[in-house]
Design a protein that fits this description.
The structure holds two protein chains of two kinds.
Chain A: H1 2-28, H2 33-51, H3 56-80, H4 84-92, H5 96-115, E1 125-132, H6 136-152, E2 156-163, H7 167-176, E3 183-187, H8 191-196, H9 204-209, H10 219-222, E4 234-241, E5 243-247, H11 248-253, H12 263-276, E6 282-285, H13 290-299, H14 317-331, E7 335-336, H15 346-351, E8 355-360, H16 364-370, E9 377-380, E10 390-399, H17 406-416, H18 419-426, H19 436-445, H20 450-455, E11 459-461, H21 472-483, H22 489-506
Parallel strand pairs in A: 1-2, 1-3, 6-7, 6-8, 10-11
Antiparallel strand pairs in A: 3-10, 4-10, 5-8, 5-9
Helix pairs in contact in A: 1-2, 1-3, 2-3, 4-5, 5-6, 13-14, 21-22
Chain B: H1 5-53, E1 56-59, E2 62-68, H2 72-79, H3 81-112, H4 119-131, H5 134-144, H6 150-157, H7 172-198, H8 201-209, H9 214-225, H10 227-242, H11 246-251, H12 265-275, H13 280-309
Antiparallel strand pairs in B: 1-2
């Protein structure tokens, strides 16, 4: 008896809940034709609940009906609204204002860019595009660019493949499997390997045909994608130089007025900062990473390879001088690894207030903007040693040598790197524009990032030569040994020299 | 001479039986055909193709243009300092993980096999890590192992200043060992649990009558009777640990560091295949060598267990 009562109680409770949900959804719906149907459905469900001494089976049936009603109502709401995204935001979130506005602005932005597009139906075909996901923002921008492309080239179909992680491995596998995307991202470090292995299409003839002036890009960026045959194999989509990001609050606390400009300044500033920072933080956070060490080597007038990339220059005094300075900061307790202050990477340490100075690029800006230090960080050029130097990281759009529709593929490649479309990217400030024409507007919009732009003039590309595509993974263990004091800097130089020579031999 | 009814009947029956047998055989092969086709295409063919590729010099991006390289790839692997480091790391990893996970999973299985309250909860809780994605678990453990993470916080209660676990050459590999044991012990526990429940209860009852202590019962009845399961678990553990890659990859952020302390054999193969420009053949040779090592270890182990059982 009591069991039956309990079941009955449960069923009516569930029934009441579904009734409530259905009513709520009906209330949210617009006053359209479906709305009249909704109460009718809910009414009948209510009937079932009150009259039947139902078992589980009926409960399920009730639930299904209610779900059906909900679906109809939801559909009605969406159909009635102006656009799917806007309606969803309006119905679900209380603070929907911001989201809706954001969507509207982006749409508007996309349409203004689309306004100056004249459709070119002459080019047709299908293009497979692969991009790496570096941030949701960038993905969204590529989406907008592709929407514009669909207007500009209505007869070219684009199939997009977004690769979330381990990008180079995935691309290499696709190329090896004869399934390379027609257009894809290539990092400057791996570009020489791809060019030497003849997997990329030279772009000069197509650029002439499509009247694209390669000279509009920064020459030191296009140089990173130029083969030994003098042909250009990729058009840079953007780039980032390394700069010195610092915490203004901590600088003030330590009585530092100007960002350090030379190696001596940097040491002096770090020493002052150490006095005002806790043991769980560090004035400088710098990891044993080739990409952070090399700018200091360049500043000392050294280099890893000779200019023709055929022999090692590691044993020249410049390399050792740069290494000694970079490692010396650590030895003197002025610099720590990110993990030692509980951070994932140096930028993470700065954004958490665990570091006062880090050497990073534009990718740190969005992280800082979202942190509590958004208003109190500054960017300066890397300090000067014997000379001014920094590292430039760039990624280009390239075309597979096996691309089927070469015209359609180049149409996409040149469109994505065109001035109007690159503006969508540089307007968001994720990276520096690779086109000279966009730089002035970029600096005007983001004055804070001027030092990064200035670095472009004297930056060296993150690139060594054929066979060095995965070299950082080999060099970093040596630097780790040095940072952990298991070897000294003379040994580190010796080991690095051996590594470079082996790599040159195997390339 | 006319055949009797019985004779004829027997003959017919015999023929039917023979036909029946052939039909059964055909049906059997038909039933396993789909699985066999996939097995041949996706397992057997790649295994032999991989072995074949280990004799060539190959560029990663162009496998078709390869040049004969004889046994050079094998000597490259065997002479490589990185391979020696990787092998040593893997051997240490395998040794500790296999022993600890086998002992731990047996203890867990015995514990949840008791008549205790909430044993279903404990079984689920111990098994749960096994069904979660190992990459996700590795990322969670990166936080546990953080300099100011959960583990060091726990240690700090006892006044111990914990290391930067995954960024310290002496603790990075042990950290991955702990993580690996934690995730695999659950699966092993379930296998042991099944074996434990197969042991006839009357053996324990007889032992009790004879006055055996629980410890004597455990070593006298439980351990010998589940020896085949232990063999199975140790084999699985050996193969699994010798192939460890994902956890080291995530914990070291794809580098095998610090200072190659988390470089495993499969990690080495991965680096040769994808981080070098023309070492795909070396990677294939590394894979063949790894196969030989695992195969030899399994044979040795089989022999050891056989003598123990006799």
């Amino acid at each position: 008896m009591s069991n039956e009562k309990r079941t009955l109680g449960r069923v009516s409770m569930i029934g009441l809940l579904t009734l409530l949900v259905a009513l709520l959804l009906a209330a949210c719906g617009d006053n359209t034709a479906t709305n009249t149907a909704a109460p009718a459905t809910t009414g009948s469900t209510g009937g079932v609940v009150t009259t039947a001494a139902a078992g589980a089976a009926t409960t399920a049936a009730v639930a299904t009906t209610a779900a059906g009603a909900a679906a109809t109502t939801a559909a009605a709401t969406t159909a009635a609204g102006a656009g799917a995204a806007t309606t969803a935001a309006a119905t679900t979130a209380a603070g929907a204002g911001a989201a809706t506005t954001a969507a509207a602005t982006t749409a508007a932005g996309a349409s203004t860019a689309a306004a100056d597009i004249t459709p070119n139906p002459a080019v047709s075909g299908t293009v497979k595009l692969a991009t790496a996901t570096s941030s949701p923002e960038e993905d969204k921008i590529v989406d907008d660019q592709l929407a514009n492309f669909a207007k500009a080239y209505p007869n070219v179909k684009v199939q997009r493949n977004t690769i979330a992680s381990d990008y180079d491995t995935k691309i290499k596998t696709l190329i090896a499997g004869n399934d390379a995307p027609d257009i894809f991202y290539v990092d400057s470090l791996i570009a020489p390997d791809y060019i030497a292995d003849k997997v990329l299409e030279p772009l000069n003839p197509l650029a002439d045909k499509f009247k694209v002036n390669i000279g509009d890009f920064y020459p030191n960026l296009t140089k990173a994608f130029t083969g030994s045959d003098g042909k250009v194999y990729g058009l840079p989509k953007d780039h980032n130089t390394l700069g010195m990001f610092y915490n203004k609050d901590l600088f003030q606390k330590a009585g530092i007025t100007d960002a350090p400009k030379t190696w001596e300044d940097l040491r002096a500033a770090a020493t002052k900062l150490k006095a005002v920072m806790g043991a769980d933080a560090s004035p400088i956070v710098a990891d044993p990473d080739l990409a952070r060490l090399l700018p200091f080597v360049y500043q000392a007038g050294g280099s890893m390879l000779t200019d023709d990339a055929k022999s090692s220059k590691v044993t020249d005094p410049g390399f050792k001088k740069g290494l000694d300075f970079y490692y010396g900061l650590r030895k003197d307790g002025l610099s720590k690894k990110a993990s030692e202050v509980g951070a994932d990477w140096a930028g993470d340490a700065l954004s958490k207030g665990k570091a006062a100075i880090v050497f990073e690029g534009g990718w740190l800006v969005p992280v800082m903007e979202k942190s509590t230090l958004a208003k109190s960080y500054g960017i300066a050029e890397l300090p000067k040693g014997d000379q001014q130097a920094t590292m430039d990281f760039t990624v280009a759009y390239v075309m597979s040598a096996k691309a089927k529709d070469k015209d359609a593929s180049f149409a996409l490649l040149s469109f994505l790197t065109s001035e109007s479309q690159q503006r969508l990217l540089s307007d968001r400030g994720l990276a520096l524009p690779s086109r000279k024409a966009l730089t002035e507007a970029f600096v005007a919009k983001f004055p804070l990032r001027k030092p990064l732009v200035d670095g472009t003039n004297y930056a060296r590309p993150w690139q060594f030569g054929v066979g060095f595509g995965g070299f950082a993974d080999k060099a970093n263990p040596v630097l780790q040994s040095l940072f952990n004091n298991s070897i000294n800097s003379d040994d580190a130089v010796k080991k690095m020299d051996e590594l470079v020579k082996t790599q040159l031999k195997n390339a | 001479m006319a055949r009797t009814y019985d004779q004829a009947q027997a003959e017919v029956g015999f023929k039917t039986m023979a036909r029946q047998k052939t039909e059964d055989r055909v049906a059997g092969y038909l039933f396993i055909a789909p699985a066999m086709v996939f097995f041949l295409i996706f397992t057997v063919y790649p295994v032999f193709y991989g072995a074949y590729l280990s004799f060539f010099k190959i560029r990663t991006v162009n496998i078709d243009e390869r040049t004969w390289n004889g046994f050079d790839n094998f000597s490259t692997v065997l002479a490589s300092e990185d391979f020696h480091i990787a092998l040593w790391n893997t051997a240490r990893f395998s040794f500790f993980v296999v022993i600890l996970q086998t002992v731990l999973s047996l203890l867990l299985a015995v514990a949840v096999n008791q008549k205790i309250r909430g044993k279903t909860f404990f079984r689920t809780a111990f098994f749960f890590p096994s069904i979660s994605s190992s990459v996700v678990i590795s990322i969670i453990f990166l936080w546990v192992f953080n300099k100011f993470g959960l583990l060091n916080y726990f240690l700090s209660i006892f006044g111990i200043n914990g290391p930067t676990w995954v960024d310290d050459t002496s603790t990075a590999l042990p950290a991955i060992m702990g993580l690996n044991i934690w995730t695999t012990a659950g699966t092993m526990m379930v296998i042991y649990l099944a074996a434990l429940q197969d042991i006839p209860v009357h053996l324990y009852e007889a032992a009790s009558v004879d006055g055996a202590t629980p410890v004597q019962k455990f070593f006298g009845i439980t351990v010998p009777l589940i020896a085949p399961t232990t063999f199975f678990i140790v084999t699985l553990g050996l193969i699994g640990t010798f192939q460890m890659f994902d956890q080291a990859f995530v914990i070291s952020n794809g580098g095998g560091g610090p200072e190659k302390s988390t470089l495993t054999v499969v990690f080495y193969i991965y680096q040769q295949a994808f981080k070098e420009r023309n070492s795909m053949g070396v990677a294939a040779a590394g894979a063949v060598i790894l196969f030989v090592i695992i195969f030899a270890l399994t044979l040795v182990q089989k022999r050891l267990f056989r003598t123990e059982q006799q």
